[in-house]
Design a protein that fits this description.
Blueprint: E1 15-18, H1 25-34, E2 39-42, H2 45-48, E3 53-56, H3 62-72, H4 75-79, E4 85-88, H5 90-94, E5 96-99, E6 104-105, E7 110-116, E8 127-135, E9 148-154, E10 156-159, E11 165-170, E12 174-181, E13 184-187, H6 195-207
Parallel strand pairs: 1-2, 1-3, 3-4, 4-13, 5-7
Antiparallel strand pairs: 5-6, 7-10, 8-9, 8-11, 10-12, 11-12, 12-13
Length: 210
C-alpha cells in the first residue's frame, strides 16, 4: 500500500482492476478513492505484473462476461496469478467452474457451480437489496461481525461448499456470499455499495499478503 510519501514503482503496491467491459468500474473506483487506495486498469497481460492485488469486477450475464474476458486474452494469465485476486459479483461467478446462466464454462479456479435461484422457493428474483452475511474466520472478513448487512443484486448464486465458503447468506436457501481458494477470493455482494462494511472488505483485501 502507498504511504503517501512516494509513488510506488510501476504501480506496485496498488490494486489492478481488470477492465474487460463487464464491470461497473465507476462505483468501485469511487469506493477505492474514498479509502485512499491506489489503483489502475488492467488491459493487457503486462498490466497484471504492475499491481500487487487484482480485482475482477462484473455485472450482468456471466456467460457474456466470460466471452468478453476471453476477448482480452487475459484468461490464462489470470488463472496463473499467485497474488491476491478478488472477484466481485459476476467477477466472483467467473472464478467458479460453470454457470447455469448461458450454460457457460468459466475460469474453473474454484470447483463450485453458479446456479439460478429457483422461483419455487417463493422468493423474488433477482435477489436485490441488503442481506445478512455470516463470515468465517478469514482475513478478508477481519473485523466483520456475524449478520452484517451487505448489498446484493443477482439472479444466480454460488452453491454452498464448506471447503471453499468463507461467508454464507440465506435467500430461500443457503448460498456462498464469499469463497476462497488459495490466493483467489470472491464476494457475491457489492462491497463498493455496502457502506462501511463493504469498505472494510476492500481495505482488508488491500492488506492481504501471500
Amino acid at each position: 500500500m502507498k504511504d503517501g510519501t512516494e509513488k510506488p514503482l510501476q504501480g506496485f503496491g496498488e490494486i489492478g482492476i481488470v477492465n474487460y467491459g463487464a464491470g461497473n468500474i465507476f462505483s468501485l473506483t469511487a469506493a477505492l478513492d474514498r479509502l485512499n487506495l491506489q489503483y489502475g486498469m488492467v488491459n493487457t497481460e503486462a498490466d497484471l505484473e504492475k499491481y500487487s492485488h487484482i480485482i475482477i469486477p462484473g455485472v450482468g450475464h456471466a456467460g457474456a462476461a466470460m466471452e468478453k474476458l476471453k476477448g482480452t486474452g487475459l484468461v490464462e494469465a489470470i488463472k496463473k496469478l499467485t497474488k491476491p485476486v478478488l472477484g466481485i459479483c459476476v467477477g466472483m461467478q467467473l472464478i467458479t467452474e460453470h454457470s447455469e446462466e448461458g450454460n457457460a464454462s468459466l475460469l474453473d479456479i474454484v470447483p463450485v457451480k453458479t446456479k439460478k435461484f429457483d422461483k419455487d422457493l417463493n422468493i423474488k428474483i433477482p435477489h436485490m437489496g441488503w442481506n445478512a452475511v455470516n463470515p468465517k474466520n478469514n482475513s478478508l472478513f477481519e473485523g466483520v461481525e456475524d449478520n452484517t448487512q451487505f448489498y446484493f443484486v443477482h439472479s444466480y448464486f454460488i452453491e454452498y461448499n464448506p471447503t471453499f465458503d468463507i461467508a454464507s447468506a440465506d435467500y430461500g436457501l443457503k448460498f456462498s456470499a464469499a469463497v476462497q481458494k488459495d490466493n483467489f477470493y470472491g464476494v457475491q455482494f457489492h462491497p463498493e455499495k455496502s457502506g462501511k462494511a463493504g469498505e472494510l472488505i476492500l481495505k482488508n483485501f488491500s492488506n492481504l499478503s501471500l
